[in-house]
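so my prof wants the structure for this chain in the tokens format not the other one, which i didnt know existed until like an hour ago. anyway here's the sequence
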Amino acid sequence: MDGQLLLVLLLLLLLLLGASGPEGQGPGPGEPEEEPPKEEIPEEDGILVLSRRNLGLALREHRTLLVQFYAPWCGHCKALAPEYSKAAALLAAESAKARLAKVDGPAETELTEEFAVTAYPTLKFFRDGNRTHPEEYTGPREAEGIAEWLRRRAGPSATRLEDEDGAQALIDGRDVVVIGFFQDLQDEDVATFLALAQDALDMTFGLTDRPKLFQKFGLTKDTVVLFKKFDEGRADFPVDEELGLDQGDLSHFLLTHSMRLVTEFNSRVLFVVVDVGADNGHVLQYFGLKAEEAPTLRFINMETTKKYAPAHGGPLTATSVTAFCHAVLGGEVKPYLLSQELPPDWDQRPVKTLVGKNFEQVAFDETKNVFIKFYAPWCTHCKEMAAAWEALAEKYKDHEDIIIAELDATANELEAFPVHGFPTLKFFPAGPGRKVIEYKSTRDLETFSKFLDNGGELPAEEPAEEPAAPFPETPANSTTEPKEEL
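here's what i got, hopefully its the right format
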């Protein structure tokens, strides 16, 4: 019995050794090698928790990734946290490819230095694993806004429309729908349109190049059309065939025509509420307001761009708002004009700087010929012609009777005339009468110079020379002197 028991124990020991293998020994012949365990990125409430060690892995695994750099003690971060988690849940429910992540900034100083994070919360958007050029997040701070901002970057920002049924379904589905009609979807104007669509989160965008849809909506050239279920129902923005589609002009058009009219004032007044605590600095600048002045009212005539302010402060009530609107519509309130402060060195450079406060004095100086560029800081066409304008000013800087100037028309308003498009170029010739000539030709140094040298108009093109007759004859009784052709 002892021998049999010993044999059984030996067999059990051999079986155990065969199953597990000696410590430190690899698998037996024919057995697959074990793969190292895959690293998992930790999550909290559906949000990836990133560090210096796993950021690279997250960028490889997720094509679109929004990363919030936060500080545990930051009050704004604490307020954002529940909305950020809700946005992650919304995207997860849609099986969206975009993911949300967060980085504890004070604990991950190498990452905050790498991405130049200086305040909390800071949100950066990474696409296709590109670690060197993340996009700054500019969207809302509430859940649906965050999710929609990411949807427009993870997928197309505008729906491609192929037929009438698709177009009509899109128009019927929302109160405000914007459709870009472009004959060539590879055109630069399409990229401008899609870039605007990425950030205009309160509107739905469509896009088409189908001739049948051009015909259905009565269009013959590239046009952006805003469809709405109120007021006139539709507003068209034709694309300038020469200058193309300007994003700033289109944005202003969509903002203006997407607002409802108010019937209490004969459909003549638009009411807009601006949250001065949000990222609305451009709106405050447009009205010449500071956040600390809120709550307050401003009234704007969209046709003349004239703005009006209440004469006295006081509580905003239905009665006071109604009285103010009636006073403006009745001509009882005078408009106010925006103006920047005049820089002390406004006339020290070849291109003189004009603001509302010195415009009249300079432009209508009867001893000077004044050529002015009215621009917007964000306008791409203004930026493109900036070098030619500087060169023009340099060329004529020693001409005492010629002034080359520029005025930011988004921050300065003029009583003489409104400025609607950018750039607008106007020439104010010397002499009485407050004469104004608008320049509408090519924006280059040579053409500008011809215009100035010819007193505010371009010379006629010289005709091609006719071959001379071999024996020109002049009547014997002719007393007419030969004229020099221009």
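also thought this was worth mentioning. Residues 69 and 312 are 44 Å apart (CA to CA).
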